Amino acid sequence: MNKTELSRKCPNITVVKKGECIEKPIWGSTCFISIHGIVSETVNTQWIRRTTEASEYLQKDCIQLVIGNGDTSIDRQIEEGLTRMWVGEKARLDLTLSPGELKYVLRSSKNDDLLELSIELTLEKIDSCEPLWRWNKDKLIGSAIVSKLRGNELFSAKRYVDVFFRYSIAAKYLTMVDPLSTDNDDVKIQLAAIRNNIAFVQHLYKNFEEVIFISSLVVDDYRDNIKARLRRAAAYIELQDYERAAKDLEVVFKVEKNNRDALRLAKDLSKRQKEFDLTMADKMKKLFS
């Protein structure tokens, strides 16, 4: 896989009919919407409307959804669009999928062009909710657990982009828990596990700097966390930072001297280090010859 930026995208919005400038959806809001039409020149819209891996929200003409629950790129973009709409507003959302997402959704597609999709919908009603910053610890922790379990299901289905977003949401909830209001060690343990999973996905998409950043957060709390050390060592190797990779592997071997993943990485590190040294030696020889 090529390096891929994993971030929520907002669709272009064209207002067809103005709504009541009273309320817009926020994270956690329940929205009631009507789908009036779906248009695309790059993909069969009927296929999208019957394929839940492409979109769960477009299966019916009248749907109820909760902002933050979308598990596909299309559904996340619909949510982002809704948070910019007023109640009663009718609008056209112009969505896009990158070539990587397009191949993921269509599976067998060899098309490298962007998938463009226009959806016309009306935000009929909103059930209001408290803003995220007012959620209590039980709601935050409970929501994090639900999000993590959903992430596990998506992981089993190898929907790694969707896994990333679902685990990221779980991590967001846990980082918002007041450390004085609960058993902070339990929250930290759950957060470390989720962050390790996020680092795994980031590595799949060759976002090695992100792997290092996320794994370092885990190591800061748990110095001997094996998964975090291995994830970070693998990322350091890819970035040719062999000294830091060796230090992480050294910590792993102190805890588990026969760890298979560490042994494999150590072998790869040794091979790459030798190749790097030979390349540098050859360049220096040519430089001064």
Plain-language structure description:
This protein has ten helices and five strands; from the N terminus they run E-E-H-E-H-E-H-E-H-H-H-H-H-H-H. The chain is an alpha+beta fold and 289 residues long. It has a five-stranded antiparallel beta sheet. The radius of gyration is 23 Å and the shape is globular.
The Rg value, from CA coordinates, equals 23 Å
Give the number of DSSP strands: 5
Unreliable stretches? none
**H-E string:** EEHEHEHEHHHHHHH
- What form results from the Cα inertia axes? globular
β-sheet strand percentage: 5-15%
Q: Strands of the largest sheet, in order across it?
A: 1-4-5-2-3
Span from first to last CA?
40 Å
- Secondary structure class reads alpha+beta
Calculate the mean pLDDT score and round it.
88
Q: Sheet bearing the most strands, described?
A: 5 strands, antiparallel
Oligomeric state of the chains? Answer: single chain
Counted by DSSP, the helix tally is 10
What share of residues is helical?
A: 40-55%
Summarize the model shown.
The chain is α+β, with helices and mostly antiparallel strands. The protein has ten helices and five strands; from the N terminus they run E-E-H-E-H-E-H-E-H-H-H-H-H-H-H. The mean pLDDT is 88.
